[in-house]
Automatic annotation (TrEMBL):
Record's protein name: pantoate--beta-alanine ligase (AMP-forming)
Keywords: ATP-binding, Ligase, Nucleotide-binding, Pantothenate biosynthesis
Pathway field: Cofactor biosynthesis; (R)-pantothenate biosynthesis; (R)-pantothenate from (R)-pantoate and beta-alanine: step 1/1
Entry EC no(s): 6.3.2.1
Reaction equation(s) it catalyzes: (R)-pantoate + beta-alanine + ATP = (R)-pantothenate + AMP + diphosphate + H(+)
HAMAP family (UniProt xref): PanC (MF_00158)
Organism: freshwater metagenome
Upper taxonomic lineage: unclassified sequences, metagenomes, ecological metagenomes
Family: Belongs to the pantothenate synthetase family.
Length: 281
């Protein structure tokens, strides 16, 4: 496994792999890797001749009030996990390498970016789309692996890749959960013991919403209320949003029909967690 701090060296390494006939799998991350990332790396390693990992905590996707300076980092542990997963190349640029001067060009994906995470964190998806576009431009033709845990991010990345005709196949991978249902996330580290015990409430709320739809509820407000009630019963959790949308368009269908996605965001004292599940109506 080789690591690269510069754009030029990482780009050259992946060009060399493709010239040798190997397809490239790319796993973009912000580091502090967990088993969710491991599943993305495994998928990239299995389906491609070589797999590459990027580790970059992207300042553009954090608002000034968010956790950029405290975002958890552990490069040595990340590299050990990448090595054991069979990753061939790791890109670990610093901010000066990625953004040597104030950036004047940003990528903004209208529509799918605006609701939910986009409403709660207005500049977030422009930051994500911009850095992912840069990473795709640096990596070149590849398959790129993203977790469904960030379902709206996945939709933003897919739309951006298709609109800009980038030579990348975006692959979504299922959410990996702890045994009590909590979706794995680097931000789970912000939870204290009591909050960690309370955090599976997100998954419980989503399952309650799904059950309502499976039992025939077709009114989005009623499904939202079912999920909100589950969250409200947990004193340490504060609901940010609970929503049900069409999985492709992020529009709320009335009545609920087709391939739907239930999504929730919940605040604890220091952590804001998101989760989602799918259901057919
Ligand atoms: O999901 C993440 O870790 C980040 O948002 C991503 C896609 C690596 C962009 O910084």
């Amino acid at each position: 496994m080789k690591t690269y701090a510069t754009i030029a060296a990482f780009r050259e390494a992946l060009d060399t792999e493709r010239h040798a006939g190997r397809a490239v799998g790319l796993v973009p991350t912000m580091g502090y890797l967990h088993d969710g990332h491991r599943s993305l790396m495994d998928a990239a390693v299995v389906a491609n001749g070589v797999a590459a990992l990027t580790i970059f905590v992207n300042p553009l996707q954090f608002a000034p009030t968010e956790d950029l300076s405290t975002y958890p980092r552990d490069l040595q542990r990340d590299l050990a996990m990448a090595r054991s997963a069979g990753i061939g190349h790791v890109f670990t640029p610093d901010v000066a390498e990625m953004y040597p001067e104030a950036i004047a060009t940003t990528v903004s994906v209208a529509g799918v970016s605006s609701a939910l995470e986009g409403a709660s964190r207005p500049t977030h998806f422009d930051g994500v789309a911009t850095v992912v576009a840069k990473l795709f431009a640096i990596a070149g033709p590849c398959r790129a692996y993203f977790g469904e845990k960030d379902f709206q991010q996945l939709a933003v990345v897919r739309k951006m890749t298709s609109d800009l005709s980038l030579p990348v196949a975006v692959v979504g991978c299922p959410t990996v959960r702890e045994s009590d249902g909590l979706a794995m996330s680097s931000r789970n580290v912000y939870l204290n013991d009591a909050e960690r015990a309370a955090a599976p409430v997100l998954h419980r709320a989503l399952r309650a919403g799904r059950e309502a739809i499976e039992q025939g509820v077709r009114d989005a407000a009623a499904v939202r209320a079912v999920m909100a009630e589950v969250i409200a019963a947990e004193p340490l959790a504060r609901l940010d949003y609970a929503e049900v949308v069409d999985a492709a368009t992020f529009v709320v269908p009335a009545p609920l029909a087709g391939t739907l996605r239930l999504l929730v965001a919940v605040r604890f004292a220091k952590a804001r967690l998101i989760d989602n599940i799918g259901v057919l109506a």
